[in-house]
Amino acid sequence: MKKILSIAFILVFFWGSIQKNLLPVFGADNQSPGTLYSESAVLMDADSGRILYEKNGYEQRPMASTTKIMTCILALENGKEEDIVTASEYAASRPKVHLGVRKGEQFRFGDLLYSLMLESHNDTAVMLAEHLEGDVETFADKMNQKAKKIGCRHTFFITPNGLDATKKTGENEQVHSTTAADLARIMRYCIKESPQKEAFLNITRTQSYTFWDIEKKRSFSCNNHNAFLSMMEGALSGKTGFTAKAGYCYVGALKREEKTLIVALLACGWPNNKTYKWKDTVKLMEYGLNEYEQKSLLEQGTFSLPETLVVENGQAEKIGGVASVPIKVKTIQDKTLLMRKGESVRVIYEGKTKLSAPIKKGSCVGNLKYIVGDCVYLSRPVYTAKSVKAIDYKWCLEKIAKQWTFTFPDNMVE
Which CATH number fits domain 40-293: 3.40.710.10, 3.30.70.20, 3.50.50.60, 3.30.457.10? Predict the structure, then answer.
């Protein structure tokens, strides 16, 4: 019996050792930033839109007040700073965090943007939405349209403030939600692509702002709650969020060393873990700064192309000969991309291997594609360097005549 127990103990010990060795060590190499608190996270290169790292980055989750970056950019693009906004009864009834507006109170449109982004006031978001589109539902439709336009495929807005919400659409029930990847895309649009990107950055970087209602009866002070702005050199912008369903959320941007990085976090802990989002953000930003560098795609990529392509039915040097046309690669402006150390560029030719006459000089016959991972980041056209005419009756006669041309011997000439 003792012998059996000893054998069993040894087997358990070795099985535990095997299991330990089989378990992946997350973050053990330089291709991972290490363990994160967030259930969903993305690190994006804002210049190219390339996702450098993701953890469940395509899972749809509630995003709380990070919603307000979309509300803000739509307000900047479609509203006017000097517009007068009137608080409705519905806006005044929104829960905390709120500005505490009263029905009928009026405010300057531009002032409310600081209330929205610095203090994340829920009533302010509703006021802006109602002012721009008449009601929250119509504004949410505009939010969804904008999301799709900038490439978000798994985002559904119901509210302008990010409070947890569900909506029945047909037979399905949809949740106010996004993915970390889509949230990063929205932030990228706000800081890189929108015609109002500078205004967005100015608002979200403001540390404090004070304003009055139109009648000068009450004053309001707003303070920026984006602690990341003082955590890392080059911090650009960001927005926090929290609801019971979403947990702590954050999206932020940083620019340093010719790199612009975006971090998006969803479900990054629940009370009392308010600081987890800052730890994950710093960890991902440092990973991007340390492990990635700007590289020239043209310098990194190598390729080989045939000097010529065969041209069927093309005029050659002689009847029965093979016609061909030289091809060249069009010179275009080089593009840099944030790439991990040791990462390589694949260059493939996608195009025609044979042509059919007639061929005009400068005709595009294909493209050289520069691929990193699964994405094409640069495409260079390949074109013909000269024209090739098709075989016709006249050409045939000329070639036949040339082949049959001969000279008489001298003794046959009188």
Answer: 3.40.710.10
